[in-house]
């Protein structure tokens, strides 16, 4: 099959599906879109309600459905007798992806776990995709031929890509929620432009280096920093805001401060030391 006539099936016709379909159609004469919820005619594009009974061998199948539907889609494809390459882009937890991968053992369908790392809303079909599993390199090559931006994780297992994506989510979505509270407070104080300008110095060093410094010093400086967080929270409350994320941040600082004052740990010289000590506290909280 030539690259210009590559057959592809895209399952899921939400924001990701629409963006990827527009890009894939530029290099594939055989794209079929499937979504039981969005089935119907969308301009010049037909979205089918179910997978076709017969899929051409060698077809590239992408799934951009919600995580809750990942296993159901995997079940449908694992039973197929044709040789296919299936890339799951559902942003599911690592263990769910590994469960899905086991469904394809002994199957002619090759399973690859994929995770969209950037924002499709901002980058569209150029959003970077990370792939994992034994067929990740092949999948990266296949996605490149249809105009998508993909990279394989070396020596990876299914679930590693989505696991990495959700680790990133812990950071980015937490920042997003704090930004809502910060900007809401700034707006009521008439300091919206000023806080944006003031935050510019965060870019003075690479972001991971900044995070390492924060985590490493959190061990011994949480007792002092908790008072600054409490003052920031009080300011937000005085403005009539219910800053629930900042409340959770203050609780986290208080827990670390209590352990630090009780156990009196040495100041970590490496971020790995800090992470291991702090993780013990998280385990105790969840136990």
Summarize the structure.
The chain has about 290 residues and is of the alpha/beta class. Helix content is about 50%, strand content about 15%. It comes from Roseivivax halodurans JCM 10272.
Give an overview of the whole structure.
The chain is of the alpha/beta class and 287 residues long. Helix content is 51%, strand content 14%. It has ten helices and nine strands. The protein has a nine-stranded mixed beta sheet, with helices on both faces. Helix 2 packs parallel to helix 3 and helix 8 packs across helix 9 (244-263). The protein is elongated, with a radius of gyration of 23 Å. InterPro entries: 6-PGluconate_DH-like_C_sf, 6PGD_dom2, NAD(P)-bd_dom_sf, Pgluconate_DH_NAD-bd_C. Pfam families: DUF1932. Residues 186-255 form the Phosphogluconate dehydrogenase NAD-binding putative C-terminal domain.
Topology at a glance:
Elements: E1 7-11, H1 15-24, E2 30-34, E3 40-42, E4 45-48, E5 60-63, H2 70-78, E6 84-88, H3 94-102, E7 109-116, H4 120-123, E8 129-132, H5 136-145, E9 150-152, H6 160-189, H7 192-198, H8 207-238, H9 244-263, H10 271-286
Parallel strand pairs: 1-2, 1-5, 2-4, 5-6, 6-7, 8-9
Antiparallel strand pairs: 3-4, 7-8
Sheet bearing the most strands, described? 9 strands, mixed
Number of strands: 9
Number of domains: 2
Shape: elongated
Give the CATH class of the largest domain: Alpha Beta
How much helicity do the residues have? 40-55%
- Kindly report the spatial arrangement of strands forming the biggest sheet: 3-4-2-1-5-6-7-8-9
InterPro entries: 6-PGluconate_DH-like_C_sf (IPR008927), 6PGD_dom2 (IPR013328), NAD(P)-bd_dom_sf (IPR036291), Pgluconate_DH_NAD-bd_C (IPR015814)
Protein name: Phosphogluconate dehydrogenase NAD-binding putative C-terminal domain-containing protein
Pfam families: DUF1932
Domain Phosphogluconate dehydrogenase NAD-binding putative C-terminal: 186-255
